[in-house]
TrEMBL record, chain B:
This is Carbohydrate ABC transporter permease. The keyword Repeat does not apply. Residues 82-274 form the ABC transmembrane type-1 domain. Gene3D superfamilies: MetI-like. It is a multi-pass membrane protein. It comes from the Bacteria. Keywords: Cell membrane, Membrane, Transmembrane, Transmembrane helix, Transport.
Automatic annotation (TrEMBL), chain C:
This is Extracellular solute-binding protein. PROSITE patterns: PROKAR_LIPOPROTEIN. Pfam families: SBP_bac_8 (PF13416). Residues 1-22 form the signal peptide. Coiled coil: none annotated. Keywords: Signal.
Length: 321, 288, 427
């Protein structure tokens, strides 16, 4: 899957060092591999001790009937079959989540990038603005969000108060199944702070010398933006895209808090992981929840794979030429 | 900041003359963004019983009662829980900075067998919703007799299990021109020295990002802290905050809002401190 | 590289040491070094409950030297998640708080110990006590009781130029009419009532129709009953006695302090009787309890007592005797009662209730008087619902909302509700 995911070390002749192929190169690459595994030692230990066990266990559990309170009982593919043949809520949760991801991820990233560009430099007091725009993201999964969001989008909330100035009687956005998901999408966009910061950090990492050189060559600002900022930022854009996709497919907390843990009204905000959670911990069907988790893993892995394949055509790394 | 030599991207150039316009737009936008937060601050200053009865933004009556009451409402003064959170969070930040940058350097700059497979596995580890790994993980830590210690919270960070940050740093390191490493290599530097002396200083923005996010996310994390630190003496801020709420009976909304604001202080402070390091890496500017 | 190598060996060593110390560290559970027994007690609730509980625990420890009770607290939203995770990890708390919907989830799966004969239950009402027994085994002891009833703000009713009903004989039609009159009489400033999708409400209505809610592992309800019940709510929305569907579902997802009644923007609402205090505190006004309306000609009003909470002991506890002693203390000891008062429902033990009667907060005195007054009319406390019933409120809410929003016909929704509910509790 990770065809282009990892830096392929360019093999260019460096003065004083033979090109790959000679006996010294083999020794060198062995040395390099050894160093790499040492650098990765903590990560390998973590994989072995902390990560792999629970992941494999959840795969096993997905083939069982497991209530958490009793021993797991092997049932083969039952959970998977049930998911796709009998469970209409499963499909509707998948639909809700897909809409959420498709709308909110591009929106949030565009927002984050635009503000990162505005806030990169050129204005007095930028760090204050940055902090202000980041504040909503600090609230994140706070339980207060549920109340705050109703203050804005509730039947008697801020939005309707503004609308009523224009003589429009707005609906209860949070409580209406047609608009509830929309308010959650806005909630997601509202917390654009994390990708914004990552974009900012990315902008800061672009060597200023590139701009100076381009300016010397007579490139105008638009040209500089197009041929320096955007290409050099692509690894970061790519990172944000991959991670936001993964994260929003797993969105849970905000829907859980805003809907009081139910995914209502009428299942309109029943996110995939929220449904998974309800199955596992409320219906005591952890086997089914584990199966759902693995289906989601396949979906996300597929999407990420496509993402990586496509990245070949638009992501530029500073380390490959 | 005004002395930066880099030109403004053309996109925003037309606005250059209208600085005031830009400030006005940003401030207006900021206020809209902050409305919910302002409401929370105002609510924390209202007498508790009026929070939902008088839901407007301006408190008719201002009191600090919620703050004094909230601070002492639980078994320990609230500062106790702030300290608990600070310990868990501080250790996590340090651990993540070290462990994730080590792994990221290997993935970004070094060549080794099975690299792509390991990378794919690393990414794969964040694709499974955590709800299904919570139980096996709890069983594991419980077998190790580590419940009500900070190890279940800190050990994963020490061992770089947060693939998000590994991937983040990989991407950042890969934006750096490789000529820098090569120049250092010619000077006789080994991988460790290149990592410490060349790559890390250039990654300051990435390190700052990692530190900021680790701090915020660990500080705000709720479920694992509730699960692994469930003795009232070990509560962290997020767990303590939830104790103000009771779905079936009366919740202490006023103290909850007040202490939520108090709990925002450290993360906001850390953010302010951290964002200063979102500056251009020193060495990149010198590269021609 | 040589310096690098050294650094690396050091890092590796440090990692190893860390893992090893981590593996060996940690507090051992069970018995302390000095031979004291450590007893873990899981409960949910607010800061106030936490304080009371800690105080009661201290009392217990003073009376039982050698036992160290450690409260394991969680907020309600995460309670069952953390509890089931602990049980799955063979790490179940010794004493577990449960409410009636969760009781059989745990009891039927062998998680709980039989407390019969270990906890003194002589002062508990036999019928209330029986709700904690399954197949003759006393898996749980009720802490206190509750009745699902109608809460009303008389001042708001009056201000809206309406009159309080005679609740001994009012009908559902009267209820809808009153709600509509309050809304119109107040010029829309006060809404009559707010909708409730609590299964207890449907249960009361079904009892009035002579149908049980549960019949073994099936629903005893007919689709007609569910449809008629929904019709009450549709009428409320139509006559503006309750907010429209969207606002109703918005309010429905909030707690009682943000309800219409709690914010003085509504005059009525249905809750458990022990929530009167919370609602009164939120609204700042005088609230009263009323009997639920009746179907004209119904033999029974259908209201019932239900335990607010249970204490139970883990079947795997190594300290069964201490666990039973702690539960006994919390249920029967007037000293514990003096501390806990009505926090876990009006005390189930008549002896404790008599001892704390005068110390109860105003709202709870009112509740007590209401329960005394209606005692003769109440039906027997229903047995704990079958395994799978913890999802019942969610299922009912979902189909009710589909109907209120007009996205499903009542016929269709009633059928689907019964099918899905039956599947959930089938076993």
């Amino acid at each position: 899957m990770a065809e282009v995911s990892v830096a392929v070390k360019p093999r260019r002749a460096v003065p004083g060092r033979p090109v790959r192929g000679g006996p010294r190169a083999t020794r060198r690459s062995r040395r390099e591999a050894r160093a790499a595994y040492l650098f990765l030692a903590p990560w390998f230990a973590g994989l072995l001790v902390i990560t792999i066990g629970p992941i494999v266990a959840s795969l096993y559990l997905s083939f069982t009937d497991y209530s958490l309170l009793e021993e797991a009982r092997w049932v083969g593919f039952d959970n998977y079959v049930r998911m796709f043949t009998e469970d209409s809520r499963f499909l509707s949760s998948l639909k809700v989540t897909t809409v959420y991801v498709v709308v909110s991820v591009p929106l949030q990233l565009a927002f984050a990038l635009a503000l990162a560009l505005v806030l990169d430099r050129g204005l007095r007091g930028l760090s204050i603005y940055r902090s202000i725009f980041y504040l909503p993201s600090l609230l994140g999964g706070s339980v207060a969000i549920a109340i705050l969001w109703r203050k804005v989008f509730g039947a008697d909330g801020l939005v309707n108060a503004v609308l009523s100035v224009f003589g429009i009687q707005g609906p209860g956005w949070v409580g209406d199944p047609d608009t509830a998901l929309g308010t959650l999408i806005l909630l997601h966009v509202w917390t654009f702070g994390a990708p914004m910061i990552i974009f900012l950090a990315g902008l800061r990492q672009i060597p200023a010398s590139y701009y100076e050189a381009a300016a010397v060559d007579g490139a105008g600002p638009l040209r500089q933006f197009r041929s320096i900022t955007v290409p050099l930022l692509t690894p970061i854009i790519f990172f944000n895209l991959v991670l936001e996709l993964i994260k929003s497919f797993q969105s849970f907390t905000q829907a859980f808090i805003v809907s009081g843990g139910k995914g209502g009204p009428a299942d309109s905000t029943l996110f995939y992981t929220l449904y998974l959670y309800l199955q596992g911990f409320k219906n005591y069907d952890m086997g089914y929840a584990a199966a759902m988790a693995w289906v989601l893993l396949l979906i996300i892995a597929g999407l990420t794979g496509v993402n990586f394949l496509a990245s070949k055509y638009w992501v530029f790394y500073g380390d490959t030429k | 900041m005004a002395t930066r030599s880099r030109p403004i991207p053309a996109l925003f150039r037309p606005l250059r003359g209208g600085r005031v316009v830009r400030h006005v737009l940003l401030i207006g936008f900021g206020l809209v963004m902050l409305y919910p937060l302002l409401w929370m601050i105002s609510s924390s200053l209202k007498p508790e019983e009026l929070i939902f009865r008088q839901p407007g933004l301006w408190p008719g009556e201002v009191t600090l009662e919620n703050y004094t009451e909230g601070w002492y409402a639980l078994k320990h003064p609230f500062g106790y829980y702030l300290w608990n959170s600070a310990v868990v969070t501080g250790l996590s930040v340090v651990a993540n900075l070290v462990a994730c940058s080590l792994a990221a350097y290997a993935f970004a700059r070094l060549d080794f067998p099975l690299k792509r497979l390991w990378f794919a596995i690393m990414l794969g580890t964040i694709m499974l919703p955590h709800h299904v790994t919570i139980v096996p993980q709890y069983i594991m830590f419980s077998e190790l007799d580590l419940i009500n210690t900070i190890w279940p919270l800190v050990m994963p960070k020490v061992l770089a299990t947060d693939a998000f940050f590994v991937f983040l740093m990989v991407q950042f390191i890969r934006t750096l021109p490789r000529e820098l490493d090569e120049a250092a290599e010619i000077d006789g530097a080994g991988y460790w020295r290149i990592f410490v002396r060349v790559v890390m200083p250039l990654c300051l923005p990435a390190l700052a990002t990692t530190a900021i996010f680790t701090f915020i996310w660990t500080w705000n994390d709720f479920l694992s802290q509730l699960l692994y630190l469930n003795n009232p003496d070990n509560f962290t801020v997020t767990v303590a905050l939830r104790t103000f709420l009771d779905a079936s009976s009366d919740s202490s909304w006023g103290p909850m809002f007040a202490m939520s604001i108090v709990a925002l202080g450290p993360i906001f402070g850390f953010f302010l401190a951290g964002q200063k390091y979102l500056i251009r890496g020193v060495a990149t500017t010198g590269l021609k | 590289m040589s310096s690098g190598k050294k650094t690396w060996s050091a890092t590796l060593l440090a990692t190893t040491v860390l893992v090893v110390t981590a593996a060996c560290g940690g507090a051992g559970g069970g018995e302390g070094a000095d031979g004291t027994v450590k007893l873990r007690f899981a409960y949910w609730g607010s800061d106030a409950r936490q304080k009371m509980t800690e105080e009661a625990i201290k009392k217990f420890e003073a009376k039982n030297p050698g036992v160290d009770v450690e409260g394991e607290f969680s907020d309600w939203a995460s309670y069952y998640e953390t509890l089931s995770t602990k049980v799955a990890g063979s790490d179940a708390p010794d004493v577990i708080s449960l409410e009636i919907r969760g009781l059989r989830e745990y009891a039927d799966r062998g998680t709980l110990a039989d407390l019969a004969g270990k906890v003194d239950t002589a002062d508990l009402d036999a019928k209330v006590l029986a709700t904690g027994a399954i197949d003759g085994k006393q898996f749980a002891v009720p802490t206190g009781v509750n009745a699902f009833s109608l809460l009303v703000n008389p001042a708001l009713v009056e201000r809206s130029k309406a009159e309080l009903p005679d609740d001994t004989q009012w009908t559902w039609d009267d209820y809808v009419e009153l709600a509509a009159r309050i809304t119109s009489g107040s010029g829309g400033e006060v809404t009559g009532t707010q909708l409730s999708w609590n299964p207890a409400y449907l249960q009361i209505y079904a009892t009035q129709k002579g149908e049980p809610f549960y019949e073994g592992n099936r629903l005893g309800l007919s689709p007609e009953t569910v449809k008629e019940w929904w019709a009450i709510m549709q009428n409320l929305i139509r006559t503006k006695g309750a907010p429209d569907a969207a606002k109703s579902s918005e309010i429905g997802a909030t707690s009682i302090d943000q309800s219409l009644l709690g914010t003085n923007s509504g005059a009525m609402g249905m809750w458990w009787s022990n929530q009167l205090g919370a609602a009164a505190k939120a609204s700042g006004g005088q609230l009263d309890l009323l009997r639920m309306p009746k179907l004209s000609g119904a033999a029974s009003g259908g209201m019932f007592l239900q335990p607010a909470m249970f204490y139970s002991a883990s079947s795997t506890t190594g300290h069964a005797a201490e666990a039973a002693a702690f539960i006994d203390f919390m249920i029967n000891d007037p000293e514990a009662g003096q501390i806990i008062l009505s926090d876990r429902g009006l005390p189930a033990s008549s002896k404790v209730l008599a001892a704390v009667r005068d110390k109860l907060p105003e709202a709870d005195k009112k509740t007590l008087a209401f329960l005394d007054e209606t005692k003769g009319e109440l039906t027997d406390p229903p047995a704990a619902p079958p395994k799978g019933a913890s999802a019942m409120e969610d299922i009912l809410t979902r189909y009710s909302e589909e109907v209120m929003f007009g996205r499903m016909t009542p016929d269709d929704a009633a059928q689907k509700f019964i099918t899905e509910a039956n599947a959930s509790i089938a076993g």
